[in-house]
Specification:
With about 375 residues, this protein is an alpha+beta fold. The protein contains 12 helices and 18 strands. The chain has helices spanning about 25-35, 50-55, 75-85, 100-110, 120-140, 145-160, 160-170, 210-225, 230-245, 325-330, 345-350, 355-365; strands at about 20, 40-45, 60-65, 90-95, 115, 170-175, 185-190, 195-200, 255-265, 270-275, 280-285, 290-295, 300, 310-315, 315-325, 330-335, 340-345, 375-380. Strands 7, 8, 9, 10, 13 and 14 form a 6-stranded antiparallel beta sheet that branches. A 5-stranded parallel beta sheet has the order 2-1-3-4-5, with helices on both faces. The radius of gyration is 32 Å and the shape is elongated. Keywords: Phosphoprotein.
Length: about 375
């Protein structure tokens, strides 16, 4: 049998990216096609309307357009492209007289690059590859900024605002750093002319903090508004029991949870309180800053049963504060060069007699280094 030798066929490399070039000059389209046909899937059209139709039919990774074209300029074309294809790499080819249009493009929708004619093939390919690589890396890496923005918007939806608290008790404030690093949350509501406040901490379970804040807020609304429990210890136990059941399958992600419940009676100046691994602080009618401490052990979803917390009650309360532990542990710099500073609670003793709005400003100014603050202040 005779073997027929055939010259091996050279396989054409698979082109990874598709580039669309828009220019009203046919000669420019031919030059571009010839220059880059070995590197990319090159598509060419001679006007903006055809470019928009091409984008509907083809998956395009990069679009580069001439600015000066009849009927639709390059900037006008990209202004329509970007909202529909926000991940596409976009570039404009311009003359020196088009700088005003480039400024408009940058301000309106952003450009990956603008290039001034005449273009150099190697330089242009380097710009294409750099922009495409950057866009590919952005597509696979975690969207940190998007996640952070989502957390902020979700917190705004879940957590009540300062205005909500002022609607119940006008002389009050909330200090809260709304970011992904803050594990604290809070809830409050009014029933029978008394205000119930919950203050809670997911500790290291920051990934579950949004789910936890949402669930605890829902449970508290059910218990306070629909339930019959009137003691803080019973409310707290119900919340812990519901959290333990709800997050049983994620206990490894939420190993511990701190919670305090207080019922404020503004008419009688009394506070009822229960807590696990949390304390609240208050001024009494003798202008003394005091502390109410709950159960000292944190609530562990795996190892612990529901703790047998007690209801504590104090009277003669003028102001009450719910403060995150990282704030309590802060040292406030001193204006006196002979001392390094004072503890946060020592600093708080100077707040007596000040309106809550003034206190909020002073506290925020002093704790500029803390990025996970959470504090509620309420005047009874």
């Amino acid at each position: 049998m005779e073997l027929i030798l055939q010259r091996p066929q050279k396989k054409e490399a698979v082109k990874k990216y598709t580039v669309l070039y828009v220019d009203d000059e046919p000669v420019n389209l031919r030059i571009f096609q010839h220059a880059f046909k070995r590197d990319y899937n090159v598509l060419t059209v001679d006007n903006g309307m055809e470019a928009l139709e091409m984008l509907k039919e083809q998956k395009v990774d990069l679009v580069i357009t001439d600015q000066q074209m009849p009927r639709m300029s390059g900037v006008d074309l990209l202004a329509q492209v970007v909202p529909k294809y926000p991940d596409i790499v976009r570039m404009i080819m311009t003359g020196f007289s088009d700088i005003g249009a480039i400024i408009r493009a940058v301000n309106e929708f952003g450009l990956d690059k603008y290039l001034v004619k005449p273009w150099d093939r190697d330089q242009l390919k380097a710009e294409f590859d750099k922009a495409l690589k950057k866009r590919e890396e952005e597509a696979v890496k975690p969207k940190g900024d998007d996640i952070a923005d989502s957390v902020i918007r979700l917190n705004n939806t879940i957590l009540p605002s300062s205005e909500d608290l002022k609607a119940l008790i006008d002389d009050s404030f909330i200090i809260y750093d709304n970011n992904v690093e803050n594990p604290y949350g809070f809830w409050f509501g009014e029933k029978n002319q008394k205000t119930t406040v919950a203050f809670f901490n997911a500790n290291e379970a920051k990934g579950l903090s949004i789910a936890l804040k949402s669930y605890v807020s829902m449970v508290l609304s059910e218990i306070v508004y629909k339930g019959t429990e009137v003691e803080t210890s019973l409310i707290l136990k119900q919340v812990l029991s519901r959290v333990k059941t709800k997050f049983a399958d994620a206990a490894d992600l939420l190993p511990s949870f701190d919670l305090s419940i207080a019922i404020l009676d503004t008419q009688n100046k009394t506070v009822e309180y229960s807590g696990v691994n949390q304390s609240i602080y208050y001024f009494d009618d003798n202008q003394k800053l005091k502390m109410l401490s709950g159960d000292k052990e944190t609530f562990n979803l795996v190892d612990n049963g529901i703790p047998d917390v007690k209801t504590l009650e104090v009277s003669g309360v003028t102001e009450v504060y719910f403060i995150s532990k990282n704030m309590v542990n802060q040292i406030i710099p001193s204006n006196n060069s002979s001392t390094e500073g004072v503890s946060f609670l020592q600093f708080m003793r100077g707040m007596i007699g000040k309106k809550m709005s003034e206190q909020s400003v002073l506290i925020t100014e002093q704790l500029t280094g803390d990025k996970a603050k959470c504090m509620l202040g309420i005047h009874l």
